[in-house]
Each structure stands twice: as structure tokens, then as C-alpha cells.
């Protein structure tokens, strides 16, 4: 089997990549031809999706973040083996009070943007305040919601005064929304349209754009970069493919060197079972989740009993087995297994799928059956198996006799804004965490200004439980409040968790560094890739 498997590290409930077989993958030469990476992510500047897909104050999906992580530097960065963030643009960072309400960073000496302009503390303040003030429709600004004010002292010290204690704040400073931008390139009160990106990250970007879509991104090593990351190459090119099959063909023909998200289940199985191949498959634990989102004000699903009945009917094990096989696992909470604070809240409440119990829920609520629903999904964002997944979901619901569903697929550029605007009653979403902490799976869906723009609001969660969980620097101590949040979600079902997936990278055998190309949050770390000797 031509597969390298990265396994779970049993420490603090976090996922950390550990090479379990086939030797080490480090030692790239750091020079030679550009390493070409394939992806099925689409990067579109449309009116519907927003004309500023790569502005750090707007971008909020795994694809665009993977571009920004290469180009726009943050004060903190998640280390290659996961764990707590470490300083990047900063020399030092840390809380300066016992209550986790004052966080101070000192910038590295001589820090510069790629164009040579010096970076000062004022630029950091400008960047953070800009994202908070613009409040883009994507909702990404909510990651900075615990900030009260940003203060500078001299040219190198930045002090964040928080509204309330937030032990997760260092993680948030490692996300692209906290990226440092040059005021000369990014207006204070307006998003930067198009595909230009300027920053102080490890690479500078040159893009090829066709029909308002970024089809090729060329990342060239930034000679001015000063930070925590070690560069193993001089240039990487990222090519966007229309399908997983087209991406796979390009890898087979050596037109690309690396294949990332999103491969089809069939491709993963074939590559994993191949022998004597020039292509290696790297499998690692992931924190990607999939779920159904509900517009809880829509007439069809406004009654909680309808959502509860769906939770009672859906058979996650069957869904995963028929569509994804060993590449995913059933998920019974928004917080995936492997994260401190995870609980199987939905299984604890509903147990195994049971049509009779679902029927009782609907009858007690006076809901007429069958309940007619359209299940919406995106055709081009979460991989080629999404349609099969929704066909299986629809079949399960319809076979209960309690629901009459159909499915409808839409491109992401239309799907995402339609979901935010409440045009779908039920729709399928995925989540790649902003950072590997339970807060990163709960607050984005349940707090004010949430990612889904959901009308669901639980005051106990927002006013008490989320703030309470953030006060705990020891994340194990936050488990009680985190468990209570998950129990409330299972009872109210504003979302319905479905499965948790593994993640894969396929690469030609002369490419090194693949073990760390993706971290547990599916963040692409192109600087880890190198070119070695094939065979």
C-alpha cells in the first residue's frame, strides 16, 4: 500500500501529525523548479460572492485563507506540529494580566512588507481596527469580537485590551483576519477588490486571472520575510482545477507535483491501494466537519420538532459507509473528536436512528407529515462526493415516510451568499476550524455575528457559556461549559452535525515535506514542500 499515515497524538486532546510509517519526509533541497500544487478550490470575484475575495477583512473560507496564509503575515502562527500558536511577525506575545484581558506583542526588529516598507505597531493597529470597522458580510470580523481597544507604544509594541477574558485570543491572532496589511494598499473603510495581495508573509503572490476567477497563483519566496517559518522552496504554483478527476489526471501526467483538497473518495482509495507507484498518498487526522444548517425562521423547519425528527432519523454510520467509507467518521456534535471538550451530545439525546421516535416528536408537536423539504448543497466547494451524500440523506429521510425531500445543487459563488441571506431552509455546509479549539467550532455558529448569519440565538450560550469557557486558560477546565453548549445545540438543533473527515495529500515521490503540508485545521503550509530525489 503506497500510503503514509499520520496518527493522533495523545496529548491535551489536540491533533498533531506524527509520521507513523515510511520514514521521514523532510530534507527538501529548497531550490529547483517551482513546485506545482493542484486544488479544486475556486477563487471568484463576483457580485454575489463579493468582489474582494482575498482581502483579509473579507475572506472566510479555507481556500482563500490558504492563499492569505502564504502572503499576509500575522503576529502569531500555528506551529507545524500544531499546539499553541507561536510568535511570527511578533518577537514575543503574551497575556500581561492574570485575567486574560490584556495581551501584548512586541514586533520583530526590522520587520518589512514585501515592497520594503517598514512595519510598525501602527500598521498592526490599522489592520486589526480596519477589519473590525468594515464588518464584512462574510462575518470574519467576529473572530476579533472580544477586542475592546488596540493600543500602541512606540513602533514595536501592540497592546490588545479585551472586553472580557479570552484564553483563545492567541489563536485568533494567528488567523488571516488578523493579517498585517499596508495602509498604502488597503483603504481604511473599503475592501480591496480583485486578486491582489500585499503583505509580509513568506511569499509574494502573482496571479493569473480569467473571467474574474483566479486560475493560477504563483507564490515566490519573499526575501524580506522575517518570522518563525522555515522556507524549503523558492517558488510554488497553485493551479485551480474544475474537478477532482482533472486534478488527478494532471498529477498522473506529472503536470502538477502535489494534489490537495478535494480528492474524490475513489481517488483516495485507488491511490492508497496502489503499489510501486510514483505517487504517494499521505493521510492524516483532520478537523473538517460537515453539517446541515437550518434557517430556524423558515416555515418548514421553524418548529423545533421537525429538526429534532430529522436528527432522530438520519443514520450517520450508513451515510459515511456508503459515501466516504473509512475516509470519514460519524459526528454527534459540532465539536469533533480529538478536541478537548468534545461530547457526543446528539447521540446522548437521540441514540440510534429511530423512525418511531421521530414520528412521536412530530405528532406531539402537531406537525403534519410528510414534511416537504428541499436539501440544498454546493456543487463545487466540498468535493465531488457531496451530491452522493445528499442523495443518501434525502433517501434516508424519505424512507422514514415522515419527510418528502428533494435535493438541489448550486455553485459556491451563489450558494454561500444565498445561505447567509436566509434563502435556504435546509442546506449543507462544511467547516474547517479557524483554530484547533472547541471555541472555534461553537462561537462561529452560535455567537452574535455568526458565520451562518443564523437567526437562532440562545441567550444562555451567548451571554454566559461562551464567555465562561473563554475564561479558562486550561481548556480542560472549560469542558463543563462546552458540554452544556453542545447539549443545548442537540436539544434545539439549529444545526445537525453529520461527519468528521480525514485529510489527504497526494504527491509525486520526489516531493518532500508532505507530512506537514496541511495542519489539523486544513491550513496549507506551502513552505514545508521541497524537491528531493525520486524513487
TrEMBL record:
First and last residue of the signal peptide: 1-20
A Pfam family reported for this protein in Swiss-Prot or TrEMBL: SBP_bac_5
Residue ranges annotated for the Solute-binding protein family domain, each copy included: 84-450
InterPro entries: Peptide/Ni-bd (IPR030678), SBP_5 (IPR039424), SBP_5_dom (IPR000914)
Domain of life: Bacteria
Family: Belongs to the bacterial solute-binding protein 5 family.
Name used for this protein in its record: Peptide/nickel transport system substrate-binding protein
Compartment(s) of residence: Cell envelope
Molecular functions per Gene Ontology: peptide transmembrane transporter activity
Origin species: Streptomyces calvus
Record keywords: Signal, Transport
Cellular component aspect of the GO annotation: ATP-binding cassette (ABC) transporter complex; cell envelope; periplasmic space
Keyword presence, Signal: yes
Biological processes per GO annotation: peptide transport
Amino acid at each position: 500500500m503506497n500510503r503514509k499515515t499520520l496518527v493522533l497524538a495523545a496529548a491535551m486532546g489536540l491533533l498533531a501529525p506524527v509520521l507513523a510509517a515510511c520514514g521521514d519526509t523532510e530534507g527538501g533541497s529548497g531550490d529547483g523548479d517551482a513546485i506545482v500544487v493542484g486544488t479544486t478550490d475556486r477563487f471568484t470575484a463576483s457580485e454575489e460572492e463579493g468582489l474582494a475575495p482575498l482581502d483579509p477583512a473579507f475572506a472566510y473560507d479555507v481556500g482563500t485563507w490558504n492563499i492569505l496564509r502564504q502572503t499576509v503575515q500575522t503576529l502569531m502562527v500555528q506551529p507545524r506540529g500544531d499546539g499553541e500558536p507561536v510568535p511570527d511577525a511578533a518577537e514575543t506575545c503574551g497575556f500581561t494580566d492574570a485575567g486574560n484581558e490584556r495581551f501584548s506583542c512586541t514586533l520583530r526588529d526590522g520587520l518589512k512588507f514585501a515592497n520594503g516598507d517598514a512595519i510598525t505597531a501602527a500598521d498592526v493597529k490599522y489592520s486589526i481596527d480596519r477589519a473590525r470597522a468594515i464588518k464584512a458580510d462574510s462575518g470574519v470580523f467576529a473572530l476579533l469580537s472580544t477586542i475592546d481597544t488596540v493600543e500602541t507604544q512606540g513602533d514595536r509594541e501592540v497592546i490588545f485590551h479585551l472586553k472580557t477574558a479570552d484564553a483563545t485570543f492567541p489563536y485568533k491572532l494567528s488567523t488571516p483576519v488578523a493579517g498585517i496589511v499596508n495602509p498604502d494598499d488597503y483603504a481604511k473603510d473599503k475592501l480591496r477588490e480583485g486578486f491582489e495581495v500585499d503583505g509580509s508573509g513568506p511569499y509574494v503572490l502573482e496571479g493569473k486571472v480569467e473571467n474574474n476567477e483566479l486560475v493560477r497563483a504563483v507564490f515566490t519566496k519573499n526575501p524580506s520575510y522575517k518570522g518563525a517559518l522555515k522556507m524549503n522552496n523558492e517558488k510554488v504554483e497553485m493551479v485551480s482545477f474544475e474537478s477532482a478527476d482533472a486534478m488527478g489526471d494532471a498529477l498522473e501526467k506529472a503536470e502538477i507535483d502535489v494534489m490537495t483538497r478535494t480528492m474524490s473518495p475513489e481517488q483516495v482509495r485507488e491511490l492508497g491501494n496502489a503499489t510501486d507507484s510514483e505517487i504517494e498518498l499521505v493521510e492524516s487526522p483532520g478537523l473538517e466537519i460537515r453539517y446541515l444548517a437550518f434557517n430556524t425562521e423558515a416555515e418548514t423547519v421553524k418548529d423545533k420538532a421537525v429538526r429534532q425528527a430529522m436528527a432522530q432519523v438520519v443514520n450517520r454510520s450508513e451515510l459515511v459507509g456508503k459515501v466516504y467509507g473509512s475516509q470519514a467518521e460519524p459526528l454527534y456534535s459540532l465539536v469533533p473528536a480529538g478536541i478537548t471538550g468534545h461530547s457526543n451530545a446528539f447521540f446522548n439525546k437521540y441514540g440510534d436512528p429511530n423512525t418511531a421516535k421521530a414520528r412521536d416528536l412530530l405528532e406531539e408537536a402537531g406537525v403534519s407529515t410528510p414534511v416537504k423539504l428541499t436539501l440544498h448543497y454546493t456543487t463545487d466547494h466540498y468535493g465531488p462526493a457531496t451530491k452522493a451524500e445528499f442523495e443518501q440523506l434525502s433517501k434516508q429521510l424519505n424512507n422514514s415516510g415522515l419527510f418528502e425531500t428533494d435535493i438541489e445543487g448550486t455553485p459556491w459563488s451563489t450558494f454561500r451568499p444565498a445561505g447567509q441571506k436566509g434563502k435556504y431552509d435546509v442546506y449543507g455546509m462544511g467547516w474547517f476550524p479557524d483554530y484547533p479549539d472547541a471555541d472555534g467550532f461553537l462561537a462561529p455558529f452560535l455567537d452574535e455575528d455568526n458565520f451562518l448569519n443564523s437567526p437562532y440565538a440562545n441567550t444562555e450560550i451567548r451571554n454566559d457559556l461562551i464567555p465562561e469557557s473563554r475564561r479558562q486558560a486550561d481548556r480542560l477546565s472549560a469542558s463543563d461549559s462546552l458540554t452544556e453548549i453542545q447539549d443545548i445545540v442537540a436539544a434545539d438543533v439549529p444545526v445537525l452535525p453529520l461527519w468528521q473527515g480525514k485529510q489527504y495529500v497526494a504527491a509525486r515521490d520526489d516531493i518532500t515535506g508532505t507530512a506537514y503540508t496541511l495542519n489539523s485545521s486544513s491550513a496549507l503550509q506551502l513552505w514545508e514542500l521541497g524537491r528531493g530525489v525520486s524513487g
